Each structure stands twice: as structure tokens, then as C-alpha cells.
Design the sequence.
């Protein structure tokens, strides 16, 4: 018994002294950087840091996103006690715009072969920036001229002449605001580069000139730390690397490291799905269609409710995506022309023009990198065109059958003689019993056609085909 107790005590002491199982977490940014995935990434980094995880691996494939959401992620990365590694993967992925800032904030930044990064010029929500350089174009020429000495005196014996120094022209309000945004972005990414020891000059070029590079070029330029074929290769290269975290310097021990993939919550996945540019335009198209149908057929309720719901979701997507006001205005004008076609038919002219303008708006609504699929645009336009065609044929059909009520509606309709005496009697026309007269005698059961209306009396004549083939009127 004493021996057994000693063995158990030794085993307990060994278990308490053994290091806890090392593990890391894998997070994913797939699509635009939005408030939903920023909340997900920041939350999981904080939890990994608090639970003492060995590593936080963020796999990235993004065209960019909102600055505020990007900064939420970066703040969590910089405050993390667990080392954070970004990995642009799989092959063919990219880490543009906001993704580049996130890469620069990581303790270790890696890319898979066949990926690219860069193009970090800020784009305002609500419109893409102008192509003109807001910083005044080329630098002013040296007023001292070529060959001047350091003191500013011109070379040679020529007398010095004083010329007014050139000053940069004042920027307009819009250009000044954009210059402030770009300068702030440059300072932000340079600070991240200096903190992590990466190429700050190229980072500034990516912001000012939208420069972009492949994974091989990024490694050569010092933008990233390594290229890895897959996760296993990445963990192998990370093992033994020293990094600086919020808690101090740490040496990564990634050999045989267990990685746990953590997914966003259901709400975060739904919001992230809605923020996809293709989904956003589908929602706005459904909203437009539902509202048009509700306006064309008031009281149908369901199309209107569906349209309003899609409109709310679509507006959320537009809130987190950089869109162009020109595209939004073209979509609105196109929808208005389609409504005009539904209410005041122009034989398809207004509707077709509206479809073309709406399609142009769909193409221009988002900048490059967020562009809507052309096949999706074609599908939306074809569906809207089919709805317009149905409306057009319904209107043409309603005009072709003539009046539905009144005296004109009953002219040229056919019926059957119910009771007749001489040249007057009673006829049944589409279930209604009318007093009638004719220029010749008729018999009960004869098929007649209305040729004229005299007050409340129908003038009829016998229709071709003779006697009515249906049931004969019975005499009471």
C-alpha cells in the first residue's frame, strides 16, 4: 500500500509539473474586412491571448474593406500576448488594401505562392478617389539650378539673381481632405512597418501609388517574412523564430503544434455574407423589383415586405462596402424608368432604357477589386427584362379585348333566344336576360348576335350556325 501511494504521489507531481498541451488557433478573413469579421477576429485574438495559446494564425483572402474595421483588428493584434501570424492563402488569394495593413501588423507575415498584396490607397465609402494627384504633381525644380554650390550661389561668374521661390498651390477642400486621409494612412502603415521591421518605403508607395507585388517580390522587398506552400510548411518554418509580443520576446515552438480552426458565429457569418458585393446588388435588385410590383399592384403586401427587407439588408451591405455615387444614381434612374414603363407604357422604350442604365449602375457601383460579376449583372437584367415583358404583354392584352363593361362591352356578343313573339322577345347574353327585337321572327333556342343597342333594348340578328346547340329554354 505504501508503495502504491508513493507511485500515485509521484505521478501526480509529474502531471502538475508537465507543460500544458501546446495549441494554436486558425482564424479566417475571406472577403471584405467588415465590422462583422473585425469583431470575430478581435474577439478570438483576445481569447487566444488570455488562454495562453502558442500561436494565432490568420489566413487572409481579401480585396480590402473598412478602415475602422481594419484598425479594430490591428489593435487586437498589437495588444496580443500570443504571437500573431498572417498567411495569405490559398494560392490565387490576395491581401489588398486593408489586408496589407493587417499583414504589416503581424509578428510574422507569410504568403503562399501565386498570391499578391498591395494596392493600399484609401478609397472613401461613397465614391472612388479622383485620378488626379492631390499632392501637387511633380516636385518643384531646384531654384538654385543645376551646378549650384551648397550655399545657393550659382556656379561660374554669372551674377546671382534673386527669383521668388516657388510655392505649392493651395489645395481645394476635396483634395485637401484626401491628402489628409492619404498622409494619415502613410504614417499609420510606416509606424506598423517600423514596429515589425518591414519595408516602410514600399508600404508608402503602396498607399500613395497603389503599388502591388507578388509573393516572390514581396519576400525580396522585405514586405513579408517567408513564403510557405501550406500550413505544414508554414509551421515548419516558424519553429524556433523569435518574435516580439505585447508580453515581450517569445520563441515560437510550432513543431507538432495542434491547430484549432475557429469559425465566426452564425450572425457574423450572415452579416459577412451580406457584405459580399454580388449579394449586395442581388438584395438591391430584389428590393427594387418588390417595391415596383407593390406599387403596380397595391395591396399584394408580400412583394412590398420582401422589397423593404431586402432594401434594409442591402443598405447595410452598402454601408460596409466602398461604393461609387455615380453607380448608385444610375441604378436609381434605371429603376425610375422601369416604374415609368409599368405605369405609362411606352411600348418598351422606357423599360429597355431603364434596364440599360440599371446595368451600367450595377457595373460601376463598386470600385475595382469589389466589381460585381458580369454574369450576375446579365442574369439580373434578363430577369428584370422578363418581368417587363410580362407587364407589356398583359397591358397589350388588356387593350385588345375592348371594353369590359357598359353598352360598348355587350355589342357584337352572342347569346340565345329565351322567349320570342313576332319580332320582339327576350334573349340571354352571357347569363344576363335582356329585352330584344329583330327584323325577322326568331324562335326560342336560336343563336343571336347583338348588332345595336337602343336604350335598354338590344337589336339582334340570327347568328350563323342556326339553333343553339346547348340546352333549350324550357317553357314554364
Sequence:
Amino acid at each position: 500500500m505504501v508503495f502504491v501511494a508513493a507511485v500515485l504521489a509521484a505521478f501526480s507531481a509529474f502531471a502538475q509539473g508537465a507543460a500544458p498541451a501546446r495549441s494554436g488557433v486558425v482564424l479566417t478573413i475571406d472577403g471584405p474586412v467588415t465590422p462583422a469579421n473585425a469583431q470575430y477576429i478581435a474577439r478570438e485574438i483576445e481569447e487566444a491571448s488570455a488562454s495562453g495559446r502558442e500561436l494565432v494564425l490568420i489566413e487572409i483572402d481579401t480585396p480590402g474593406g473598412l478602415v475602422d474595421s481594419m484598425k479594430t483588428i490591428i489593435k487586437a493584434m498589437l495588444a496580443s500576448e500570443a504571437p500573431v501570424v498572417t498567411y495569405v492563402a490559398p494560392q490565387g488569394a490576395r491581401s489588398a488594401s486593408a489586408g496589407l495593413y493587417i499583414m504589416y501588423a503581424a509578428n510574422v507575415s507569410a504568403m503562399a505562392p501565386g498570391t499578391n498584396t498591395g494596392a493600399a490607397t484609401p478609397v472613401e465609402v461613397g465614391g472612388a478617389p479622383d485620378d488626379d494627384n492631390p499632392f501637387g504633381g511633380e516636385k518643384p525644380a531646384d531654384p538654385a539650378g543645376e551646378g549650384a554650390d551648397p550655399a545657393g550661389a550659382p556656379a561660374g561668374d554669372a551674377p546671382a539673381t534673386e527669383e521668388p521661390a516657388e510655392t505649392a498651390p493651395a489645395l481645394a477642400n476635396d483634395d485637401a481632405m484626401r491628402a489628409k486621409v492619404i498622409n494619415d494612412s502613410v504614417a499609420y502603415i510606416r509606424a506598423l512597418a517600423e514596429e515589425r521591421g518591414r519595408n516602410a518605403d514600399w508600404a508608402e508607395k503602396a498607399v500613395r501609388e497603389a503599388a502591388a507585388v507578388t509573393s516572390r517580390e514581396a519576400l525580396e522587398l522585405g514586405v513579408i517574412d517567408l513564403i510557405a506552400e501550406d500550413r505544414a510548411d508554414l509551421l515548419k518554418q516558424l519553429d524556433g523564430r523569435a518574435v516580439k509580443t505585447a508580453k515581450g520576446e517569445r520563441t515560437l515552438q510550432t513543431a507538432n503544434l495542434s491547430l484549432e480552426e475557429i469559425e465566426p458565429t452564425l450572425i457574423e457569418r450572415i452579416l459577412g455574407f451580406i457584405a459580399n458585393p454580388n449579394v449586395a446588388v442581388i438584395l438591391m435588385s430584389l428590393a427594387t423589383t418588390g417595391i415596383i410590383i407593390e406599387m403596380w399592384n397595391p395591396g399584394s403586401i408580400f412583394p412590398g415586405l420582401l422589397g423593404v427587407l431586402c432594401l434594409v439588408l442591402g443598405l447595410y451591405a452598402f454601408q460596409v462596402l466602398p461604393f461609387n455615387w455615380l453607380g448608385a444614381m444610375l441604378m436609381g434612374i434605371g429603376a425610375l424608368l422601369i416604374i415609368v414603363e409599368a405605369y405609362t407604357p411606352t411600348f418598351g422604350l422606357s423599360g429597355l432604357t431603364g434596364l440599360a442604365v440599371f446595368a451600367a449602375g450595377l457595373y460601376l457601383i463598386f470600385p475595382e477589386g469589389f466589381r460585381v460579376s458580369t454574369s450576375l449583372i446579365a442574369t439580373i437584367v434578363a430577369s428584370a427584362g422578363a418581368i417587363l415583358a410580362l407587364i407589356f404583354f398583359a397591358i397589350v392584352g388588356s387593350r385588345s379585348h375592348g371594353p369590359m363593361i357598359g353598352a360598348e362591352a355587350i355589342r357584337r356578343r352572342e347569346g340565345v333566344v329565351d322567349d320570342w313573339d313576332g319580332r320582339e322577345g327576350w334573349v340571354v347574353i352571357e347569363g344576363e336576360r335582356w329585352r330584344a327585337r329583330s327584323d325577322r321572327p326568331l324562335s326560342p333556342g336560336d343563336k343571336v348576335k347583338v348588332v345595336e343597342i337602343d336604350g335598354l333594348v338590344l337589336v339582334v340578328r340570327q347568328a350563323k350556325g342556326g339553333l343553339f346547340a346547348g340546352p333549350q329554354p324550357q317553357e314554364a
Confidence is low (pLDDT under 50) at residues 11-20, 125-167, 468-476. Residues 241 and 455 are 104 Å apart (CA to CA).
